[in-house]
Amino acid sequence: xxxxxxxxxxxxxxxxxxxxxxxxxxxxxxxxxxxxxxxxxxxxxxxxxxxxxxxxxxxxxxxxxxxxxxxxxxxxxxxxxxxxxxxxxxxxxxxxxxxxxxxxxxxxxxxxxxxxxxxxxxxxxxxxxxxxxxxxxxxxxxxxxxxxxxxxxxxxxxxxxxxxxxxxxxxxxxxxxxxxxxxxxxxxxxxxxxxxxxxxxxxxxxxxxxxxxxxxxxxxxxxxxxxxxxxxxxxxxxxxxxxxxxxxxxxxxxxxxxxxxxxxxxxxxxxxxxxxxxxxxxxxxxxxxxxxxxxxxxxxxxxxxxxxxxxxxxxxxxxxxxxxxxxxxxx
Length: 331
Fold this sequence. Notes:
Elements: H1 7-17, H2 22-35, H3 43-68, E1 83-88, H4 94-101, E2 119-125, E3 128-134, H5 147-152, E4 156-162, H6 168-180, E5 184-187, E6 191-192, E7 200-209, H7 216-226, E8 232-235, H8 244-255, E9 257-262, E10 271-279, H9 284-291, H10 293-297, E11 301-306, E12 309-315, E13 325-330
Parallel strand pairs: 1-3, 1-4, 4-7, 5-7, 7-8, 9-13
Antiparallel strand pairs: 2-3, 6-7, 9-10, 11-12, 11-13
Helix pairs in contact: 1-2, 2-3
């Protein structure tokens, strides 16, 4: 019997995939169990959820004890139209990239482990901003497990490789090895493991940095010989500014962002300064919830102007919005 999972369930499931703390995981799992249709087709999934809830409760207790002992937390507020996290080994160029595409001013130095805690920056693109997070380097000997929550909570990973040193391939392998034994993995798309609902995969782009250096091509060939990854590749030099515009466009495309502009019924023009952003496939009701929960609760219908609809058409809350739609919500 098919599971026939509801849109509400899938929405909570996506929130669970991005849960950053044990408390977030437990809350989402309990909501998933509440939203799942109760019939024979979901018996197995219900049992798995109950087992995960039991385990999550234990992890919450462990986390509380760690917090009392002064354990660090890396839960950061989400901002902008999407969150992108930079991962890589020592001197991969994460801080240089953050500095090049945002207004952030991280310390950049030619020695390893300059970045000791996450650094935030906002990358502008057209009329939106995207949050970038620079992170401490990962090596075979050094890995902060608190990074796992940030990876899960991100929409996209930029996995950076240092083509300026012979150790670049070894450092890339170290990053992959550190994540291999965790519930947080990298992939060419974001999803939850169907066989183990606790394992989360985050969409990843491979960013090959320092491509302008003389031996970069030989080091890239060596990397491809020893490591096979199913990630889209992007060649840049953060310091020289090479390939950055192409990388920014690839990030926006990977995030699959849709911008929606709102218009008040008594106004002729929409507010084009601050669009609401959501993932492609989102509906007018999702836009209403972004505006305010009261707007969503009292939603009646909306008029829409866009490229895929007749101007001013009246639609219901399940209308799937397109990029640059103008919506006039009536409640």
